[in-house]
Amino acid sequence: MNNLADTVVVDPGFGGGDKQQQAGPAPQDASVVVPPPATKQSSALKKTSRYRSRSLSASSTDSFSSASYTGSSEDGDDVPPREKVQKNSRGSSDFCVRNIAAQHAFGRREIEIAEQEMPGIMALRKRAAEDKPLKDAKIVGCTHINAQTAVLIETLVELGASVRWAACNIYSTQNEVAAALAESGIPIFAWRGETEEDFWWCIDRCVNAENWQPNMILDDGGDATHLMLKKYPTMFKLVKGIVEESVTGVHRLYQLSKAGKLTVPAMNVNDSVTKTKFDNLYSCKESILDSLKRSTDVMFGGKQVVVCGYGDVGKGCAQALKGQGCIVYITEIDPICALQASMDGFRVVKLNEVIRNVDIVVTATGNKNVVVREHMDKMKSGCIVCNMGHSNTEIDVNGLRTPDLTWEKVRSQVDHIIWPEGKYIILLAEGRLVNLSCSSIPSFAVSITSATQALALIELFNAPPGRYKSDVYLLPKKMDEYVASLHLPTFDAHLTELSDEQAKYMGLNKAGPFKPNYYRY
Question: Which of 197, 203, 418, 428 sits in a 20 to 30 Å window from 306, CA-based?
Fold first, then answer.
């Protein structure tokens, strides 16, 4: 482990996956701002003018922005943020965003709008602000950066925490929101269209800060956890707890635990009821339609769609698309999920059985190489390909970066991949999370997840020594129920209370929890 701390992090992906945003090295000295190196191409690629490089695709110079309603995330500024000298109104330069001066005011309005639709996290902020349960907590955050997560970040600060934040996805950052956070004094390192090298540099700047020692991690995908573990192992051992909200990140934590490398307790928020049943299901149910419609203007009625994976994300996507008149197929490896899909009225197939005929392909498995070049060679012209899973490994985008294919950028996050015979497919967000790259997500659903994350941080930070060992834990059921109760007043919902006799008969506490941990909602 000590040797690992002295080496450059070249590919911090667990198991050597194909995650493109993990391909760049993390700099050894985070205090030195070094412009990213020029992208190199092989001689074979240089010979063809038809091949469009990844760095061009990642650019954020289009006037159209799918990350915000007004297009403010694309300011047309070609100067890399790392080459700029920027300060907020307080004189601080401890941040790196696209354009703080031009964008922070609009970003603040975006955050204020999100607050109105996030009753749970705002109620938690109001109830706990006086007690400051996160006083002395120093949190490294690596999540999507948009108006909704900004509400969470500012709530953590209100509860007493000191935070430093980076983005977990190079395409999902709302530049105006990042600018607003920087203006408010929060050290944030993120902008839309980062390179892979920028991505790791930003996380490193959050972890390795002068006179600041992190003791908590809030992660979405496991990138901050992995960088700290590999590059700063001594620092990692001093962390009191990790909170992880994605399938990918949780899988990585369980791998670390199984290998005996997890030296701190971690909370698996992804599998909490309030995350899986509301963020994963209901949020994706709405955002898949929004992202496809905004990016391609497609009409859904009569379209043939294959959804790869029938977990909560896949269920939400399939139900939404079916409701719009699509003919939906499901691919699954799990017989239980496959049976659920069949009972819900979907035909369960192998991808090769339908790939020649479908109009839209949606991946939602959390796995790698679900859709590969062989599949895309068989697709009909105009087929839309997108990913709703956290990681960008589900679609083999590298398999499309060959000299025989032409990449044509149509609009922000929308590429035509053209075959020599003229056939093309429509690839959204280069295989990254399409709903956060090409649209927005419901603030109310994020409020549920944010409240869950905040409570998990409070629980781990304030837990007495010995309560949690170096392992992965689920959020206590009582906290899940509390998060749900914070959101019920929005619907004017009134809970029925158990009588003493009823509570005794059921063997329950009148205040909950009302279900055992093994109960499946």
Answer: 418
